[in-house]
Specification:
alpha/beta; Rossmann fold; 7-stranded parallel sheet; about 40% helix
């Protein structure tokens, strides 16, 4: 892929896939599976669009049944993800859920196991950011609370609910971190802090759960073209999005999904736990 500059554009949060210019590549026509996750069950939070949709497609084509969560405003995107999972010959479970409370997180895990029979992979992908304001004055209590509840609290609640099931399957957990944990932007102060917390939690959970045979890892994407960008970034940032990377372009969700497949696959990553895998276009994650 060559250097790329996106047209200036904005959406209301949380954004939709079809309104993006260009529409992201989730691997719809390119991802080819090889039965790496045959008959596994994965729960992908925020699986309606962006990286979550790309992971759901890849997991389905690798042979897994997939449950996804989405917000009410993301219902149309979630239905399209489910269609793509079904087209791969796998079961799709669509769960409308705002993960900002413990009871909802527990319900999501329970529903996945009840309807799909087991749980092998938990992907904590759902996230919230808002970059249109800048500086401490924009960090009101509501924004801080939403960012931390979505990105950090939900992770702990989901892991707590999923752990008994993952012990039974010797499954694994993959958290979605970010380059922001390593190179934080000032207008993403709260978001970047949550991603640093996710890195720490990933290492700590790997130590906590490793004795149960549960691997815990994270993927740290760089700038990836998803609805989160036009829904939360100023127009000028969209026009320049990804150009600051060594590869001089943003990544596509389809370029991130294989990292989630690698970490979920026992044949490839059976001794990989407590690590953060960067998919950043050349930006360092150390």
């Amino acid at each position: 892929m060559s250097d790329q500059q996106f047209p200036r554009q904005q959406q209301e949060p949380p954004g939709t896939t079809t309104a993006m210019d260009p529409v992201p590549d989730h691997g719809e026509t390119s991802y080819v599976g090889h039965d790496r996750l045959l008959d596994k069950v994965a729960l992908v939070t925020g699986g309606d669009s962006g990286i979550g949709r790309a992971v759901a497609i890849a997991y389905a084509r690798e042979g897994a049944d997939v449950a996804i969560t989405h917000l009410p405003e993301e219902r149309e995107d979630a239905a399209e993800t489910a269609r793509l999972v079904h087209d791969a010959g796998r079961r799709a479970l669509v769960l409308e859920a705002d993960l900002r409370d413990a009871a909802t997180c527990g319900r999501v895990v329970d529903s996945t196991v009840a309807q799909l029979g087991r749980l092998d992979v938990l992907v904590n992908n759902a996230g919230y950011q808002m970059a249109r304001g800048a500086g401490l004055d924009d960090l009101d209590e509501e924004r801080i609370d939403r960012t931390f509840r979505t990105n950090v609290y939900a992770l702990f609640w989901l892991v707590r609910a999923a752990a008994p099931h993952l012990r039974e399957t010797r499954g694994n957990i993959i958290n979605n971190s970010s380059i922001q944990a390593y190179q934080p932007a000032t207008n993403l102060l709260d978001y970047a802090a949550t991603k640093a917390a996710i890195n720490n939690a990933t290492v700590n959970l790997a130590a906590e759960l490793g004795g149960d045979g549960i691997r815990v890892n994270a993927v740290a994407p760089g700038p990836i073209w998803t609805p989160l960008q036009p829904a939360t970034q100023p127009e000028q940032k969209i026009a320049e999005f990804g150009l600051e990377t060594p590869m001089k372009r943003a990544g596509q969700p389809a370029e991130v999904a294989p990292a989630f497949v690698f970490l979920a696959d026992e044949a490839s990553a059976s001794y990989v736990s407590g690590t953060v895998l960067g998919v950043t276009g050349g930006k360092p994650v150390f």
